[in-house]
């Protein structure tokens, strides 16, 4: 069992929350980190099981694939290049707009993540790649 100190340090380093599911490159299983260490989800009949990936993760031998953030009855942030602070804070009411943003992976847990995405867009515009932004539609 992981101590809270170790678990929280790992989660902070990976910019994740406890029990947030993630993938690992070249693996079909979903994983999560909690007080039991790293667990993997094989199928509905087996449920969550302990994983031997903790050592490989800590040593940087495997690459984590973060899943898009999906807000549930909580605040989230979106990039917005039309305003000075480059982000908006939104509550997920489950509207069609919320669902659209989730579908296009434009929901972020922190304002820093939303700002980083907005800066990425501004860089694309500056470099003359504005056509890419049109593919994002109006979210």
Overview of this protein structure:
The chain contains five helices and seven strands. By secondary structure, it is an alpha+beta fold. The chain folds into two domains: 4-66, no CATH class; 75-134, no CATH class. The chain is elongated, with a radius of gyration of 18 Å. The model has no long low-confidence stretch (mean pLDDT 83).
Write the layout of secondary structure elements.
Layout: H1 4-14, E1 22-24, E2 30-34, E3 37-41, E4 48-50, H2 53-58, E5 64-66, E6 75-79, E7 87-91, H3 96-103, H4 111-126, H5 130-134
Antiparallel strand pairs: 1-5, 2-3, 3-4, 6-7
Keywords for this entry:
single chain, 139 residues, alpha+beta, 2 domains, three-stranded antiparallel beta sheet, two-stranded antiparallel sheet, elongated
Concise overview:
This protein is α+β, with helices and mostly antiparallel strands. It has helices spanning 4-14, 53-58, 96-103, 111-126, 130-134; strands spanning 22-24, 30-34, 37-41, 48-50, 64-66, 75-79, 87-91.
């Amino acid at each position: 069992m992981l101590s809270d100190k170790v678990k929280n340090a790992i989660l902070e380093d990976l910019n994740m929350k406890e029990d947030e599911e993630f993938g690992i490159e070249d693996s079909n299983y979903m994983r999560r980190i909690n007080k039991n260490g790293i667990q993997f989800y094989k199928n509905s009949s087996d449920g969550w099981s302990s994983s031997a990936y903790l050592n490989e993760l800590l040593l940087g031998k495997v690459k984590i694939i973060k899943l898009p953030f999906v807000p549930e009855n909580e605040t989230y942030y979106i990039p917005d290049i039309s305003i000075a602070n480059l982000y908006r804070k939104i509550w997920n009411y489950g509207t069609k707009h919320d669902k659209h943003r989730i579908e296009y992976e434009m929901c972020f847990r922190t304002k820093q993540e939303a700002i980083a995405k907005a800066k990425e867009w501004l860089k694309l515009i500056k470099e003359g790649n504005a056509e890419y932004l049109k593919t994002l539609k109006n979210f």
